[in-house]
Amino acid sequence: MSTPSQQILSMGFGFALSQSLRVVAELSIADLLAGGERSADELAEATRTNADALYRVMRLLASEGVFREVSHRRFVQTELSAALRSDLQSSPRDFIRMINGEAFQAFAQLSYSVQTGKPAFDQVFGAPRFEWLGAHPEQAALFQRGMIALSQGSNEAVADAYDFSASRCVVDVGGGHGQLLSAILARNAHLHGVLFDLPSGIAAARTAAGGPLPRSELVAGNFFESVPPADTLVLKKVIHDWDDERAAAILRNCRKAMASNGRILLAETIIPAGNDPALIKAIDVTMLAVPGGLERTESQYAELLSLAGLRLERVIATKAPISILEARLA
User: Fold this and answer.
1) Is 34 helix (H, G, I), strand (E, B) or coil?
2) What pLDDT digit, counting tens, does each position of 57-76 carry?
3) Among 98, 209, 217, 314, which is 20 to 30 Å from 23 by CA?
4) Catalytic one of 72, 177, 192, 240
5) Catalytic site includes residue 177
6) The 67-71 sheet, strands edge to edge
7) pTM > 0.85
8) 149-329 fold
9) Domain boundaries, given as residue ranges, for the chain
């Protein structure tokens, strides 16, 4: 039984685990172990790394169940490490690589964000997160792939949970690759879809990276300026990227684009009350330091919608850790 001090020390070394995961993800160690047991020396030769150093990283991860050391310096795959294989559609590999890159560097200056309430990313990199990604296409592509990995299951859960029978046109605002819109259209043959995102997101969608988009228009633009009109507008994991002022500006543009009897659907993970562990609480602090956004409670979303002239009608649970907040004109 560890003491409170030992527990705190263990938590303080969380960065060692996250960065070790990034290293083995970038080296594709899980792919190399897919064929069976390998030694650290063999893995180091295949990845052109230092065998002793690689062994030490893998030994740490094996202590957490990510790999298993079956004999001295020889490792096999586990269920956890298998999840990092690059050939699995649901692999979190790219998200681990993305979040432990420049976002990790920004998070090292979390104290700046706590002191000022502003994102440390801007201070470290000299530009806001999304503006910086726009100037760094390789990292932007990794970000998009990371978001696909993070969204596994949630797009289908949102598409299954909401009844779109009364809708005719759905705009996926800030829809990136178009995964969510693809899932919605696949379940609702009567719908016309519009995927709306920055040019980089639309370019990615044209490759069908997010799935087929029949009966759809792909429109590039900026949701701080305007949004295509529709009776139903969906924003999945968009509003959490922004502070209240900018989030309300996005929602006001959505309200202007929405038909008088239409609705706006926010697909977000709501912060639960109480002290129980929840991944969304860690994501919330990451939002503070990196893009400057925030995760919200249900009451905070209701207040935000009110600022934009909207009324929260209901909250719909899904089979994934994400909810649909349906809003209409106030």
Assistant:
1) helix
2) 999 999 999 999 999 999 99
3) 209
4) 240
5) no
6) 38-39, 74-77, 67-71
7) yes
8) Rossmann fold (3.40.50)
9) 4-82, 93-148, 149-329
